[in-house]
Amino acid sequence: MNIAATASLALAMSTDAFAAAVGKGAALQRPQLREALRTGAIFGVIEGLTPLLGWALGQAAAPYVQAWDHWIAFVLLGLLGLRMIHEGLQAPETGEDKPSSHGFWRLALTGMATSIDALIVGAGLAFIDANIPVVAAAIGCATFVMVTIGVMLGRGLGALVGKRAELVGGLVLIVIGSLILYEHLHAAAA
Q1: Is the backbone of residue 9 left (phi > 0), alpha (psi -120 to 50) or beta?
Q2: Contact in structure between 102 and 39 (CB atoms under 8 Å)
Q3: Which whole-number Å values give the CA distances from 4 to 105, 136, 138, 157, 159, in the listed order?
Q4: Residues 19-52: pLDDT tens digits?
Q5: Does the CA dihedral 176-178-181-186 come out positive or negative?
Q6: What is residue 140's predicted lDDT score, i.e. its pLDDT?
Q7: Considering just the CA atoms, what is the radius of gyration of the chain in Å?
Q8: Distance spanning both ends of the chain, measured CA to CA
Q9: For the whole prediction, is pTM greater than 0.90?
Q10: What is the pLDDT of residue 61?
């Protein structure tokens, strides 16, 4: 793989995480750059490790994971999205504001859900002459940058949406999961 192909792949793998990060940023009380960098780092590390894991799985597991990756992403993102919508519909307690940060495990789970495609890419790269550490590092770095930008963009969106920003983030996750499922089912039918 050449530099252009690696950069394009890295950018493509980071787009789902970017969209989820916009929702995460919108759900926070004026997220600061530190929180955006933290979120970007969590997503970037996970997104960078999943192609390595996929590559390690290789030929034996690729057909199994590939057959179910879209369903796994759909269910994980859908459940996370429904939870965010549920939380957005809850009446706020008196004096309750939006959080200033998300918990590590919530971010990690969202990062894992948006990186299933990178796992499959890693499995596919096991069959071609690709420098998997370089590709994985490029995917992780691109995701770090895109998620950091996404959280900060979500900050502005949060001010526009108000207290229901959690609804927007939940809907974004459900749409991402649905698009992943649609793309895979549509490709299979073609």
Answers
A1: alpha
A2: yes
A3: 34, 15, 11, 32, 37
A4: 788 878 877 777 889 989 999 999 999 999 999 9
A5: negative
A6: 95
A7: 17
A8: 27
A9: no
A10: 65
